[in-house]
Amino acid sequence: MNLRVFCVLIMVYILSAVIHGETSSPEYISQMQLLYRTNLQIEYVERAMRRHCPALIVELGSLGVPLSLLRKRRTAMDLDQVRLNVELAKHVLSTLKLKYLSPGCQNSSCSNSVCQNGGSCIRGPGFNVSCACPTGYTGKKCEIRAASVTCTATWLSACKGTYGTGRCSFTCPIGCINSGTVWGTGIYTGDSRLCRAAIHDGRLPSTGGVATVIGLGAIKAYTGTTLNGVTTTSFGSYGTSFRFV
């Protein structure tokens, strides 16, 4: 018998007790409520395990659950029987939590990840994972190829074809901090140098790396500032622009 069947049976017991008017005793009501809450927790942990470590999902029999208790007729569900089922549910929940928090389940969150193109999976707190992408790739799963550009590349020369369709990712080399002119702050003109703008915006260090932009239309004015060792220039209206994402 699997956990889902167990939870369904518990719900049937509760509904049957209500239908037959066996909830007059305060203790009976309290125990049934506890059974219901514990059952909900079992379902929650089971769903989490099926998502993160399905190989560790176990049958109730292997948890030491006396299945004969679950096969008794509803008429045997008196107060003592409810107490027994509460303890049974607590036992199941406790065992599942131990398995859910075990290294075997925690570690599987990374082994089941889908980092692509040689990306390395990094485990964070709980089951949070991220991908460390190799040079030339970006995205949550390293699924986006970032073409290499030179320090002279602009949005117009490298990314214009992506306007209105999505993002443009690129890989900058080292040494672009003093290369070319950049107009704007936060939003840059379409003919600004991509790599130098990325340094100004704090997206890349002077040693280069991968950055991503999205193309925008014209804005009325661009304001120059000095940030991260790069000074940009102010400008009036320009037909195309971009920002980093």
From TrEMBL:
Keywords: Disulfide bond, EGF-like domain, Signal. The keyword Nucleotidyltransferase does not apply. InterPro entries: CRISP-LCCL_domain, EGF, LCCL, LCCL_sf. Residues 106-143 form the EGF-like domain. Pfam families: EGF, LCCL. SMART domains: EGF, LCCL. Residues 1-21 form the signal peptide. It comes from the Eukaryota. Disulfide bonds join 133-142. Residues 145-242 form the LCCL domain. This is Uncharacterized protein LOC106162175. The lineage of its organism: Eukaryota, Metazoa, Spiralia, Lophotrochozoa, Brachiopoda.
